[in-house]
Write a sequence for this structure.
């Protein structure tokens, strides 16, 4: 009798281990925020602290999501694309957190104030626009939506690029004098967009 | 009983002071640059903070009686002092080794008795008071602080300003070795501020040498700073080394940097928004995660005392 040996290939290991590990890693900043909030370890201005930190993570996950396909092209690791949806949804999760903190804690659901801010303050206008774009992407991230939208799905999901640009602009326009941090994000974004461009022209 | 002998350390293994200081400095500047991207709290454990010495003989006053004050620890942990970095926690972290003695203030310009005065003379010759003032940052947060110090006019009068002295210009120390934030040209160093002479001579305008009965912590502008309670916080210049009486309006750093956002006067005014955010409300520091914003008052609540200084002026133009 021929007994088939179970195959613990790198491929299987990836499939069963990498996704949960990535999920845990991607959720840890939220856990960290919650831990600090519950233990009184936020700054003396806790609402600002939560807003900044959730915003930072939203930007980081947007850039991580955008980095996957250039990274795939550079390394040949096609499996990376399988995690793009999950990481994109994490980016949206942190954007949503950032938005809700602003809405509920900063503005106490005062919608007149909120709408005035969105209209009058350019950095909020662009941030809010990015949020709406990413909301559309998150809502159409299911297989069902993909099937339904067909060719248009890909077109719609190109919105991640303007959303990322607006998100960086949102940061750049809110700082007072020290633009180093937003410039670092802008630099990474430009690099990722160029990397994509180079691949496209090679085709 | 087992007594462990201290391990012998070859003198060649002991890092000499110059090197570990450099190493520390390197770590600090690295953390400073890495900034929020790497969250330096994991790189550097907070060094235990030594509290400044208690101030003897403080004269209590009725200023701000009944106001609910901000916790001492919050005042030391959260503030702007770009000389030590641009994040709110930077001053507390990077100002700990700042040397504030000996310290002299040079007084020059349109006055009869130009000269210098040492910090110890200021503390021993001028009665130090305690006053409670509201403090409003241009960014939209606020505190209430037990300041120790005296009316700036008491110091200025000693140098006998002449009739040509229409303004007073102030300068912060420039010392990038001690003030790591000055290594990057975020602002045009040294930090400069200015007041009209009547604002400077107003009894509310205070030269501050301490908070909560202790000498001013390094991160809050040691050894002495201004406090002008009806103006946004950036007017209240820290770690002052120079005072100059001038005939024309002096340069003020933030005003020079972005004139349309930060005026020379910078009076707290809920009717004139910062171009990028509202000034109608502020949030009090230390009230936790569910604190609501408060309405900001004209001149930060000091209108009765100071509004006359600006009568006839268009405060939307001269913001």
């Amino acid at each position: 009798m021929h007994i088939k040996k179970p195959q613990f290939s790198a491929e299987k290991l990836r499939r069963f281990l990498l996704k949960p590990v990535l999920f845990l890693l991607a959720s840890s900043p939220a856990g960290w925020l919650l831990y600090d909030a519950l233990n009184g370890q936020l700054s003396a201005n806790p609402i600002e602290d939560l807003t900044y930190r959730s915003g930072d993570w939203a930007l980081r996950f947007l850039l991580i999501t955008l980095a996957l396909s250039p990274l795939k092209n550079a390394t040949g690791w096609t499996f990376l694309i399988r995690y793009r949806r999950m990481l994109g949804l994490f980016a949206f999760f942190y954007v949503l957190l950032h938005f809700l903190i602003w809405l509920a804690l900063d503005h106490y659901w005062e919608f007149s104030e909120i709408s005035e801010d969105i209209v009058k303050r350019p950095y909020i206008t662009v941030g809010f626009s990015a949020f709406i774009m990413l909301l559309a992407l998150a809502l159409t991230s299911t297989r069902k939506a993909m099937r339904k939208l067909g060719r248009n799905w890909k077109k719609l999901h190109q919105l991640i690029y303007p959303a990322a640009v607006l998100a960086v602009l949102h940061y750049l326009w809110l700082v007072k004098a020290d633009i180093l941090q937003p410039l670092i994000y802008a630099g990474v974004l430009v690099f990722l967009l160029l990397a994509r461009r180079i691949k496209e022209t090679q085709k | 009983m087992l007594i462990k002998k201290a391990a012998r350390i070859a003198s060649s293994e002991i890092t000499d002071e110059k090197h570990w200081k450099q190493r520390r400095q390197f770590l600090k500047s690295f953390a400073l640059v890495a900034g929020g991207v790497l969250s330096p709290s994991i790189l550097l454990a907070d060094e235990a903070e030594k509290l400044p010495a208690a101030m003897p003989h403080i004269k209590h006053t009725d200023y701000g009686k009944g106001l609910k004050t901000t916790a001492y620890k919050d005042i030391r942990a959260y503030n702007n002092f770009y000389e030590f970095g641009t994040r709110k926690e930077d001053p507390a972290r990077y100002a700990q080794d700042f040397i504030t003695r000996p310290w002299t203030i040079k007084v020059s310009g349109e006055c009869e008795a130009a000269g210098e005065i040492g910090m110890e003379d200021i503390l021993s010759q001028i009665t130090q008071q305690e006053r409670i003032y509201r403090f409003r940052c241009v960014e939209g947060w606020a505190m209430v602080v037990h300041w120790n110090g005296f009316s700036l006019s008491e110091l200025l009068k000693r140098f006998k300003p002449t009739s040509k002295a229409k303004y007073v210009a102030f300068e912060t120390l420039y010392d990038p070795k001690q003030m790591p934030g000055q290594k990057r040209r975020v602002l045009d160093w040294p930090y400069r501020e200015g007041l009209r002479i009547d604002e400077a001579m107003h009894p509310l305008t205070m030269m501050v040498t301490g908070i909560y009965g202790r000498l001013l912590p390094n991160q809050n502008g040691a050894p002495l700073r201004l406090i002008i309670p009806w103006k946004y916080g950036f007017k209240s210049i820290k770690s002052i080394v120079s005072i100059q009486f001038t005939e024309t309006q002096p340069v003020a750093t933030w005003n020079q940097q972005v004139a349309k956002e930060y005026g020379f006067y910078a009076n707290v005014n809920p009717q004139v928004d910062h171009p990028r955010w509202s000034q109608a409300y502020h949030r009090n520091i230390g009230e936790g995660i569910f604190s609501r914003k408060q309405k900001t008052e004209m001149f930060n609540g000091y209108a009765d005392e100071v509004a006359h200084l600006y009568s006839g002026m268009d405060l939307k133009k001269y913001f």
